Amino acid sequence: MGKVIDAMKSRFQTRDIPKTIQGRFNALLRKEKGDTAKVAERLGVSRRTVQRYVKGDRDISKSKPEILDRLATEVTKDHQPRVRAKAEAEARERGLTVETRAKFGFTAAGGSTDDSRMRRLTEDVPDELIPEIFEALRNGDDNKANEIIAEGLAREYFREADTEALRGLDVKFTDIDYIELDYR
Length: 184
Prior knowledge:
It is built from nine helices and three strands; from the N terminus they run ααααααββαααβ. By secondary structure, the chain is α+β, with helices and mostly antiparallel strands.
């Protein structure tokens, strides 16, 4: 995972997904209540392949990397739904703050640029972006989470004056040194 998703997991989840591939497979199988057809659909393999994994005729840890990546993604989607829902509800109620040290740069609408540089920022995330951030966490999509947080920081820090020149500002958020999320 990336730094943004890792920071969110460390703050909003109490434990990680199972470490072993077999443990992840078993978690997905439990989530689908033993329905091998549903597990096969989620992994993009045949039902017979899943049945072989269950029976022990085939070792899932020796599967293609794409299947193992899908397994991790699918298990992450279902991991600790009540803990995540409680954290999201609290974030919506109290708000969310991001503290980071990362490289920020921007491109204005007129084509002028400002070279990116390291900045340390502590800003509140706009409330309307909070559900999108938690959706990115659910999907394990670090790029999307990065984009959403960059947009929130851009709104709060770079576009605070709300002038015409700043409305078209495209903020780049890269080279994250550290990032922490917390409730306001």
